[in-house]
Specification:
five-stranded parallel beta sheet, disordered N terminus
């Protein structure tokens, strides 16, 4: 719907809150705007609490994406890597929650390498790097010297969240 805006409002507690404003309504609707982007969230399990308590609620509140995340999608009795690959292949975009733990994890590196292989020049918008903590980003920087990533090392700062939601076309 054209005219829907969804800015983040930062409360005194430091937690973001989304406010929706309608300033124009049009009968003609672009159907691609009604189909949410499919986002595969690749993260280290050591970041699981932050992903579930901060990242996922904000993305869901923005309503910008259908989230593919292991805890909700993976099933017992099935091979783990095959499930990872299958859900990542169904996604429009891989959101990589980068940290030292992420880069040290073999399954996370596998997901990152598959994401890079799908968009090696970072020109298709299939990869959204989110830096959660200080880590070596050379694996991404060597592919693109001007790659822009979301910095959420201090997730109380609104700039990172704003960039993340803009990148997912939520605002």
């Amino acid at each position: 719907l054209q005219g829907l805006t969804c800015p983040l409002v930062w409360e005194p507690s430091g937690r973001p809150r989304l406010r929706f404003f309608f300033f124009q309504f049009r009968i003609a609707v672009n159907l691609t705007q009604l189909v949410p982007m499919k986002v595969f969230i690749s993260h280290s399990h050591k970041q699981g609490q932050w992903v579930w308590e901060r990242l996922v609620p904000i993305l869901r509140a923005a309503g910008c994406a259908e989230l593919f995340i292991d805890r909700e999608r993976f099933k017992a009795g099935r091979e783990l890597m095959a499930q990872m690959d299958s859900w990542q292949d169904q996604a429009d975009l891989s959101l990589l929650v980068l940290s030292r733990d992420y880069l040290a994890s073999k399954p996370c590196r596998h997901e990152m390498e598959r994401a890079i292989a799908a968009d090696p020049g970072f020109k298709l918008g299939r990869i959204l790097p989110v830096q959660r903590s200080a880590c070596d980003l050379s694996v991404l920087k060597k592919r693109s010297k001007t790659l822009l990533w979301v910095n959420l090392t201090d997730d109380r700062e609104p700039q990172g969240w704003d960039l993340l939601l803009r990148s997912l076309q939520a605002v």
